[in-house]
Automatic annotation (TrEMBL):
Its cofactor is pyridoxal 5'-phosphate. GO terms for molecular function: glycine C-acetyltransferase activity; ligase activity; pyridoxal phosphate binding. The keyword Ligase applies. The keyword Acyltransferase applies. InterPro entries: 2am3keto_CoA_ligase, Aminotrans_II_pyridoxalP_BS, Aminotransferase_I/II_large, AON_synthase_class-II, PyrdxlP-dep_Trfase, PyrdxlP-dep_Trfase_major, PyrdxlP-dep_Trfase_small. It catalyses: glycine + acetyl-CoA = (2S)-2-amino-3-oxobutanoate + CoA. Signal peptide: none annotated. It holds the Pfam family Aminotran_1_2. Keywords: Acyltransferase, Ligase, Pyridoxal phosphate, Transferase, Transit peptide. This is 2-amino-3-ketobutyrate coenzyme A ligase, mitochondrial. Belongs to the class-II pyridoxal-phosphate-dependent aminotransferase family. Its EC number is 2.3.1.29.
Length: 427
Protein backbone atom coordinates (compact mmCIF):
# COMPACT_ATOMS: atom_id res chain seq x y z
CA UNK A 1 0.00 0.00 0.00
CA UNK A 2 1.35 3.46 -0.91
CA UNK A 3 1.92 6.09 1.77
CA UNK A 4 -0.85 8.25 0.31
CA UNK A 5 -3.38 5.42 0.40
CA UNK A 6 -2.40 4.57 3.96
CA UNK A 7 -2.90 8.17 5.06
CA UNK A 8 -6.32 8.35 3.36
CA UNK A 9 -7.38 5.10 4.99
CA UNK A 10 -6.59 6.58 8.42
CA UNK A 11 -8.21 9.95 7.77
CA UNK A 12 -11.52 8.53 6.52
CA UNK A 13 -12.56 6.89 9.84
CA UNK A 14 -11.29 9.90 11.78
CA UNK A 15 -13.59 12.14 9.77
CA UNK A 16 -16.47 9.99 10.80
CA UNK A 17 -15.53 10.41 14.45
CA UNK A 18 -14.85 14.14 14.36
CA UNK A 19 -17.75 15.18 12.14
CA UNK A 20 -21.21 14.97 13.77
CA UNK A 21 -23.73 12.90 11.94
CA UNK A 22 -26.31 14.69 9.82
CA UNK A 23 -29.20 13.94 12.25
CA UNK A 24 -27.16 15.39 15.14
CA UNK A 25 -26.41 18.55 13.17
CA UNK A 26 -30.05 18.89 12.21
CA UNK A 27 -31.14 18.59 15.84
CA UNK A 28 -28.61 21.24 16.84
CA UNK A 29 -29.77 23.65 14.14
CA UNK A 30 -33.39 22.97 15.03
CA UNK A 31 -32.74 23.76 18.70
CA UNK A 32 -31.11 27.08 17.78
CA UNK A 33 -33.93 27.93 15.39
CA UNK A 34 -36.52 27.11 18.03
CA UNK A 35 -34.74 29.27 20.63
CA UNK A 36 -34.47 32.13 18.12
CA UNK A 37 -38.19 31.91 17.41
CA UNK A 38 -39.02 32.01 21.12
CA UNK A 39 -36.76 35.03 21.66
CA UNK A 40 -38.14 36.89 18.65
CA UNK A 41 -41.66 36.24 19.94
CA UNK A 42 -40.75 37.76 23.29
CA UNK A 43 -39.22 40.79 21.58
CA UNK A 44 -42.26 41.25 19.34
CA UNK A 45 -44.48 41.18 22.44
CA UNK A 46 -42.42 43.93 24.08
CA UNK A 47 -42.67 46.09 20.96
CA UNK A 48 -46.41 45.49 20.64
CA UNK A 49 -46.98 46.48 24.26
CA UNK A 50 -45.13 49.76 23.74
CA UNK A 51 -42.58 48.89 26.44
CA UNK A 52 -39.52 48.60 24.19
CA UNK A 53 -36.55 50.36 25.81
CA UNK A 54 -34.38 51.96 23.16
CA UNK A 55 -30.95 53.26 24.18
CA UNK A 56 -30.24 56.79 23.05
CA UNK A 57 -26.59 57.50 22.40
CA UNK A 58 -24.96 60.39 24.27
CA UNK A 59 -21.89 61.92 22.62
CA UNK A 60 -20.76 64.18 25.46
CA UNK A 61 -19.93 64.01 29.15
CA UNK A 62 -22.76 63.63 31.65
CA UNK A 63 -24.25 66.89 32.89
CA UNK A 64 -27.35 69.11 32.92
CA UNK A 65 -26.77 69.69 29.20
CA UNK A 66 -25.68 66.85 26.94
CA UNK A 67 -25.26 66.07 23.26
CA UNK A 68 -27.38 63.25 21.86
CA UNK A 69 -26.70 61.42 18.62
CA UNK A 70 -29.07 62.74 15.96
CA UNK A 71 -29.81 66.06 17.70
CA UNK A 72 -28.49 69.28 16.24
CA UNK A 73 -27.97 71.14 19.51
CA UNK A 74 -27.39 70.46 23.21
CA UNK A 75 -30.21 68.83 25.16
CA UNK A 76 -31.31 69.46 28.75
CA UNK A 77 -30.89 66.21 30.69
CA UNK A 78 -33.60 65.57 33.29
CA UNK A 79 -33.28 61.84 33.86
CA UNK A 80 -29.77 61.22 35.26
CA UNK A 81 -28.97 60.12 38.80
CA UNK A 82 -26.38 62.91 38.80
CA UNK A 83 -28.14 64.56 41.74
CA UNK A 84 -25.31 66.87 42.80
CA UNK A 85 -23.86 67.50 39.36
CA UNK A 86 -20.56 65.89 40.38
CA UNK A 87 -20.21 63.49 37.42
CA UNK A 88 -18.33 66.18 35.48
CA UNK A 89 -17.21 68.40 38.37
CA UNK A 90 -13.68 69.59 37.48
CA UNK A 91 -12.19 68.58 40.84
CA UNK A 92 -13.78 65.14 40.65
CA UNK A 93 -12.55 64.61 37.09
CA UNK A 94 -9.03 65.75 38.00
CA UNK A 95 -8.95 63.39 40.96
CA UNK A 96 -9.72 60.52 38.59
CA UNK A 97 -6.94 61.60 36.24
CA UNK A 98 -4.48 61.84 39.11
CA UNK A 99 -5.43 58.38 40.39
CA UNK A 100 -5.05 56.94 36.89
CA UNK A 101 -1.54 58.36 36.57
CA UNK A 102 -0.45 57.32 40.08
CA UNK A 103 -2.17 53.94 40.50
CA UNK A 104 -2.86 52.76 36.94
CA UNK A 105 -6.01 51.66 35.14
CA UNK A 106 -6.82 48.69 37.37
CA UNK A 107 -5.55 45.99 39.70
CA UNK A 108 -6.19 42.82 37.64
CA UNK A 109 -7.06 41.15 40.92
CA UNK A 110 -9.65 40.73 43.61
CA UNK A 111 -9.09 42.57 46.87
CA UNK A 112 -7.66 39.77 49.02
CA UNK A 113 -5.02 38.61 46.51
CA UNK A 114 -3.27 41.76 45.33
CA UNK A 115 -6.09 44.20 44.70
CA UNK A 116 -6.13 46.49 47.73
CA UNK A 117 -4.37 49.84 47.41
CA UNK A 118 -4.15 52.56 50.01
CA UNK A 119 -6.67 54.62 48.05
CA UNK A 120 -9.31 51.85 48.51
CA UNK A 121 -8.79 51.88 52.28
CA UNK A 122 -8.85 55.68 52.31
CA UNK A 123 -12.23 55.78 50.55
CA UNK A 124 -13.64 53.16 52.90
CA UNK A 125 -12.54 55.25 55.91
CA UNK A 126 -14.10 58.40 54.45
CA UNK A 127 -17.40 56.67 53.67
CA UNK A 128 -17.57 55.25 57.20
CA UNK A 129 -16.92 58.77 58.51
CA UNK A 130 -19.53 60.27 56.21
CA UNK A 131 -22.22 57.86 57.38
CA UNK A 132 -20.97 57.89 61.00
CA UNK A 133 -20.59 54.09 61.06
CA UNK A 134 -17.76 51.89 62.30
CA UNK A 135 -16.47 50.50 59.02
CA UNK A 136 -17.05 50.20 55.28
CA UNK A 137 -16.49 47.66 52.49
CA UNK A 138 -16.42 48.55 48.77
CA UNK A 139 -18.11 46.56 45.99
CA UNK A 140 -18.20 46.82 42.20
CA UNK A 141 -21.80 48.10 42.47
CA UNK A 142 -24.57 48.48 45.03
CA UNK A 143 -26.29 45.58 43.27
CA UNK A 144 -23.28 43.51 44.36
CA UNK A 145 -23.42 44.98 47.87
CA UNK A 146 -27.06 43.88 48.14
CA UNK A 147 -26.27 40.49 46.61
CA UNK A 148 -23.42 39.93 49.05
CA UNK A 149 -24.96 40.99 52.38
CA UNK A 150 -27.96 38.86 53.27
CA UNK A 151 -26.43 35.47 52.48
CA UNK A 152 -23.59 36.20 54.90
CA UNK A 153 -25.61 37.82 57.68
CA UNK A 154 -28.81 35.77 57.79
CA UNK A 155 -29.08 32.00 58.26
CA UNK A 156 -31.93 29.46 58.34
CA UNK A 157 -32.82 30.40 61.93
CA UNK A 158 -33.26 34.07 61.02
CA UNK A 159 -35.94 36.15 59.27
CA UNK A 160 -35.85 38.98 56.74
CA UNK A 161 -38.81 41.39 56.59
CA UNK A 162 -38.78 43.27 53.30
CA UNK A 163 -40.94 46.05 51.84
CA UNK A 164 -42.82 44.70 48.82
CA UNK A 165 -41.52 47.49 46.55
CA UNK A 166 -37.84 47.18 47.44
CA UNK A 167 -35.33 47.45 44.62
CA UNK A 168 -34.71 44.38 42.45
CA UNK A 169 -31.16 44.04 43.79
CA UNK A 170 -32.50 43.75 47.35
CA UNK A 171 -35.03 41.15 46.27
CA UNK A 172 -32.36 39.12 44.48
CA UNK A 173 -29.98 39.42 47.43
CA UNK A 174 -32.61 38.16 49.86
CA UNK A 175 -33.34 35.21 47.57
CA UNK A 176 -29.74 34.08 47.99
CA UNK A 177 -30.00 33.74 51.78
CA UNK A 178 -31.56 30.82 53.67
CA UNK A 179 -33.49 32.96 56.15
CA UNK A 180 -37.26 32.97 56.40
CA UNK A 181 -38.58 35.67 54.06
CA UNK A 182 -41.59 37.85 54.84
CA UNK A 183 -42.85 40.72 52.67
CA UNK A 184 -44.82 43.57 54.20
CA UNK A 185 -47.07 45.95 52.30
CA UNK A 186 -45.39 49.05 50.94
CA UNK A 187 -44.53 51.44 53.80
CA UNK A 188 -47.33 49.85 55.88
CA UNK A 189 -46.25 49.91 59.53
CA UNK A 190 -49.28 47.90 60.63
CA UNK A 191 -48.42 45.05 58.29
CA UNK A 192 -44.76 45.25 59.29
CA UNK A 193 -45.76 44.85 62.94
CA UNK A 194 -47.83 41.78 62.04
CA UNK A 195 -44.81 40.26 60.29
CA UNK A 196 -42.60 41.05 63.29
CA UNK A 197 -45.06 39.24 65.55
CA UNK A 198 -45.20 36.31 63.13
CA UNK A 199 -41.41 35.94 63.14
CA UNK A 200 -40.77 36.25 66.88
CA UNK A 201 -39.32 32.74 67.13
CA UNK A 202 -36.44 33.65 64.78
CA UNK A 203 -32.91 34.07 66.12
CA UNK A 204 -32.21 37.37 64.33
CA UNK A 205 -34.58 39.56 62.35
CA UNK A 206 -33.71 42.24 59.85
CA UNK A 207 -36.15 44.85 58.55
CA UNK A 208 -35.10 45.75 55.00
CA UNK A 209 -36.23 48.85 53.11
CA UNK A 210 -35.14 51.35 50.52
CA UNK A 211 -34.56 54.71 52.15
CA UNK A 212 -36.09 56.29 49.04
CA UNK A 213 -38.02 54.20 46.53
CA UNK A 214 -36.58 55.08 43.16
CA UNK A 215 -39.65 54.76 40.97
CA UNK A 216 -41.95 56.98 43.08
CA UNK A 217 -39.54 59.13 45.06
CA UNK A 218 -41.34 58.31 48.32
CA UNK A 219 -39.37 58.20 51.58
CA UNK A 220 -39.58 55.19 53.88
CA UNK A 221 -41.18 55.86 57.31
CA UNK A 222 -37.92 55.15 59.11
CA UNK A 223 -38.98 56.60 62.46
CA UNK A 224 -41.89 54.18 62.71
CA UNK A 225 -39.79 51.31 61.35
CA UNK A 226 -37.11 51.91 63.98
CA UNK A 227 -39.75 52.14 66.74
CA UNK A 228 -41.15 48.75 65.74
CA UNK A 229 -37.72 47.19 65.31
CA UNK A 230 -36.72 48.25 68.81
CA UNK A 231 -40.01 47.05 70.28
CA UNK A 232 -39.61 43.60 68.75
CA UNK A 233 -35.84 43.24 68.91
CA UNK A 234 -35.02 43.52 65.19
CA UNK A 235 -32.26 45.26 63.24
CA UNK A 236 -32.82 47.81 60.45
CA UNK A 237 -31.19 47.92 57.01
CA UNK A 238 -31.66 50.67 54.41
CA UNK A 239 -30.56 51.04 50.80
CA UNK A 240 -29.62 54.69 50.31
CA UNK A 241 -28.78 54.84 46.60
CA UNK A 242 -31.30 57.63 45.98
CA UNK A 243 -30.55 59.56 49.17
CA UNK A 244 -26.80 59.56 49.84
CA UNK A 245 -25.24 62.96 49.32
CA UNK A 246 -28.31 65.18 49.24
CA UNK A 247 -31.04 64.17 51.72
CA UNK A 248 -30.76 65.45 55.27
CA UNK A 249 -29.21 68.70 56.55
CA UNK A 250 -25.69 67.51 55.66
CA UNK A 251 -26.62 65.16 52.82
CA UNK A 252 -26.03 62.02 54.89
CA UNK A 253 -29.25 60.42 53.70
CA UNK A 254 -32.72 59.34 54.76
CA UNK A 255 -31.64 58.33 58.26
CA UNK A 256 -30.25 61.82 58.87
CA UNK A 257 -33.31 63.46 57.31
CA UNK A 258 -35.57 61.61 59.77
CA UNK A 259 -33.23 61.79 62.76
CA UNK A 260 -32.54 58.04 63.12
CA UNK A 261 -28.87 57.72 62.16
CA UNK A 262 -28.11 55.98 65.47
CA UNK A 263 -31.07 53.60 65.08
CA UNK A 264 -30.34 52.24 61.59
CA UNK A 265 -27.75 49.48 61.81
CA UNK A 266 -26.66 48.74 58.22
CA UNK A 267 -26.57 51.03 55.19
CA UNK A 268 -25.87 50.07 51.59
CA UNK A 269 -25.37 52.74 48.97
CA UNK A 270 -23.72 53.60 45.68
CA UNK A 271 -20.89 55.65 44.24
CA UNK A 272 -22.70 55.62 40.90
CA UNK A 273 -25.25 58.36 41.50
CA UNK A 274 -24.67 61.48 43.61
CA UNK A 275 -21.08 60.56 44.57
CA UNK A 276 -19.47 61.15 41.19
CA UNK A 277 -21.64 58.84 39.14
CA UNK A 278 -18.94 56.44 37.95
CA UNK A 279 -19.46 53.00 39.49
CA UNK A 280 -19.20 51.10 42.75
CA UNK A 281 -21.21 50.42 45.86
CA UNK A 282 -20.58 49.81 49.53
CA UNK A 283 -21.85 48.63 52.89
CA UNK A 284 -21.32 50.58 56.11
CA UNK A 285 -22.13 49.19 59.53
CA UNK A 286 -20.69 47.41 62.58
CA UNK A 287 -17.04 46.40 62.18
CA UNK A 288 -17.65 42.67 62.91
CA UNK A 289 -20.16 42.59 60.04
CA UNK A 290 -17.76 44.31 57.64
CA UNK A 291 -14.96 41.94 58.67
CA UNK A 292 -17.21 38.95 58.02
CA UNK A 293 -18.25 40.31 54.61
CA UNK A 294 -14.58 40.53 53.65
CA UNK A 295 -14.24 36.83 54.46
CA UNK A 296 -17.46 35.44 52.99
CA UNK A 297 -19.27 37.88 50.69
CA UNK A 298 -19.08 36.27 47.26
CA UNK A 299 -19.42 39.41 45.08
CA UNK A 300 -16.55 40.94 47.06
CA UNK A 301 -14.34 37.85 47.00
CA UNK A 302 -14.83 37.05 43.32
CA UNK A 303 -14.96 40.51 41.67
CA UNK A 304 -12.02 42.67 40.67
CA UNK A 305 -11.22 45.70 42.80
CA UNK A 306 -12.72 49.03 41.85
CA UNK A 307 -10.44 50.74 39.29
CA UNK A 308 -8.25 53.49 40.78
CA UNK A 309 -9.75 56.31 38.64
CA UNK A 310 -13.23 55.41 39.94
CA UNK A 311 -11.97 55.37 43.51
CA UNK A 312 -10.19 58.69 43.00
CA UNK A 313 -13.32 60.38 41.66
CA UNK A 314 -15.53 59.02 44.45
CA UNK A 315 -13.05 60.02 47.14
CA UNK A 316 -13.01 63.61 45.91
CA UNK A 317 -16.83 63.67 45.80
CA UNK A 318 -17.03 62.48 49.43
CA UNK A 319 -14.39 65.01 50.47
CA UNK A 320 -16.42 67.82 48.91
CA UNK A 321 -19.50 66.74 50.87
CA UNK A 322 -17.57 66.34 54.11
CA UNK A 323 -16.25 69.88 53.68
CA UNK A 324 -19.58 71.57 52.88
CA UNK A 325 -23.29 70.84 52.59
CA UNK A 326 -23.88 73.81 50.28
CA UNK A 327 -24.48 71.70 47.15
CA UNK A 328 -26.95 69.42 48.92
CA UNK A 329 -28.83 72.38 50.41
CA UNK A 330 -29.61 73.77 46.94
CA UNK A 331 -31.67 70.72 46.01
CA UNK A 332 -34.85 71.48 47.95
CA UNK A 333 -35.76 74.78 46.29
CA UNK A 334 -35.09 73.43 42.78
CA UNK A 335 -37.10 70.27 43.43
CA UNK A 336 -40.10 72.19 44.74
CA UNK A 337 -39.94 74.68 41.84
CA UNK A 338 -40.44 71.84 39.38
CA UNK A 339 -43.05 69.98 41.44
CA UNK A 340 -45.16 73.10 42.10
CA UNK A 341 -45.11 74.32 38.50
CA UNK A 342 -46.02 70.88 37.14
CA UNK A 343 -48.85 70.43 39.64
CA UNK A 344 -50.21 73.88 38.79
CA UNK A 345 -50.17 72.90 35.11
CA UNK A 346 -52.40 69.91 35.87
CA UNK A 347 -49.93 67.02 35.95
CA UNK A 348 -49.94 64.33 38.65
CA UNK A 349 -46.52 64.08 40.32
CA UNK A 350 -45.91 61.09 42.59
CA UNK A 351 -43.77 61.07 45.72
CA UNK A 352 -43.06 64.00 47.98
CA UNK A 353 -40.24 66.52 48.29
CA UNK A 354 -37.63 64.38 46.54
CA UNK A 355 -35.67 65.17 43.35
CA UNK A 356 -37.24 62.06 41.78
CA UNK A 357 -40.42 63.53 40.29
CA UNK A 358 -42.50 60.86 38.50
CA UNK A 359 -44.95 62.38 36.02
CA UNK A 360 -47.74 59.79 36.16
CA UNK A 361 -49.32 58.86 32.80
CA UNK A 362 -50.58 55.29 33.21
CA UNK A 363 -50.22 54.13 29.59
CA UNK A 364 -46.85 52.70 28.54
CA UNK A 365 -47.09 53.76 24.90
CA UNK A 366 -48.09 57.31 25.91
CA UNK A 367 -45.08 57.58 28.23
CA UNK A 368 -42.74 56.46 25.45
CA UNK A 369 -44.23 58.75 22.79
CA UNK A 370 -44.28 61.77 25.10
CA UNK A 371 -40.63 61.20 26.01
CA UNK A 372 -39.73 61.16 22.30
CA UNK A 373 -41.66 64.40 21.77
CA UNK A 374 -39.88 65.99 24.73
CA UNK A 375 -36.53 65.20 23.10
CA UNK A 376 -37.62 67.13 20.01
CA UNK A 377 -38.25 70.10 22.33
CA UNK A 378 -34.74 69.86 23.77
CA UNK A 379 -35.44 67.88 26.96
CA UNK A 380 -34.06 64.39 27.58
CA UNK A 381 -36.44 62.24 29.68
CA UNK A 382 -37.35 58.56 29.53
CA UNK A 383 -40.67 56.75 29.81
CA UNK A 384 -40.80 54.02 32.47
CA UNK A 385 -43.16 51.09 32.07
CA UNK A 386 -43.57 47.43 32.96
CA UNK A 387 -41.55 45.50 34.15
CA UNK A 388 -39.64 48.44 35.66
CA UNK A 389 -42.89 49.70 37.22
CA UNK A 390 -46.24 47.89 37.71
CA UNK A 391 -48.61 47.59 34.76
CA UNK A 392 -50.91 50.61 34.46
CA UNK A 393 -48.45 52.88 36.28
CA UNK A 394 -46.26 54.05 33.42
CA UNK A 395 -44.65 57.41 33.93
CA UNK A 396 -41.90 59.75 32.87
CA UNK A 397 -39.47 59.98 35.75
CA UNK A 398 -37.90 63.42 36.00
CA UNK A 399 -34.83 63.87 38.18
CA UNK A 400 -33.71 67.28 39.37
CA UNK A 401 -30.00 68.00 39.77
CA UNK A 402 -28.22 70.67 41.76
CA UNK A 403 -26.60 71.60 38.45
CA UNK A 404 -29.94 72.59 36.88
CA UNK A 405 -30.69 76.31 36.76
CA UNK A 406 -34.14 77.82 37.28
CA UNK A 407 -34.18 78.52 33.54
CA UNK A 408 -33.50 74.83 32.83
CA UNK A 409 -36.36 73.77 35.09
CA UNK A 410 -38.80 76.26 33.55
CA UNK A 411 -37.87 75.08 30.04
CA UNK A 412 -38.56 71.48 31.08
CA UNK A 413 -41.96 72.43 32.52
CA UNK A 414 -42.87 74.38 29.36
CA UNK A 415 -41.96 71.35 27.22
CA UNK A 416 -44.14 69.11 29.38
CA UNK A 417 -47.07 71.51 29.07
CA UNK A 418 -46.74 71.64 25.28
CA UNK A 419 -46.42 67.86 24.98
CA UNK A 420 -49.12 67.17 27.56
CA UNK A 421 -51.64 69.30 25.68
CA UNK A 422 -50.74 67.61 22.41
CA UNK A 423 -51.55 64.17 23.83
CA UNK A 424 -54.56 65.22 25.91
CA UNK A 425 -52.92 64.65 29.28
CA UNK A 426 -53.72 68.20 30.36
CA UNK A 427 -56.11 70.76 28.88
Amino acid sequence: MSLGKAARSLVKPLRGVLRPSTPALNRSYAAVAEARAVLEGELDGIRAAGTWKAERIITSKQGPQINVDGSQSSILNFCANNYLGLSSHPEVVQAGIDALKTYGAGLSSVRFICGTQDLHKNLERKLAEFHEREDCILYASCFDANAGLFEVLMGPDDAVLSDELNHASIIDGIRLCRAKRLRYKHMDLGDLENKLKESQSSRMRLVVTDGVFSMDGDVAPLTGICDLAERYGAMVFIDECHATGFLGPRGRGTDELLGVMDRVHIVNSTLGKALGGAAGGYTVGPKPLIDLLRQRSRPYLFSNSLPPPVVGCATKAVELLLASSEIAESMTAKTMRFRNKMTQAGFTIAGSAHPICPVMLGDARLASVMADDMLKLGVYVIGFSYPVVPKGKARIRVQISAAHTDKDIDHCVDAFIQTGKKHGVIS
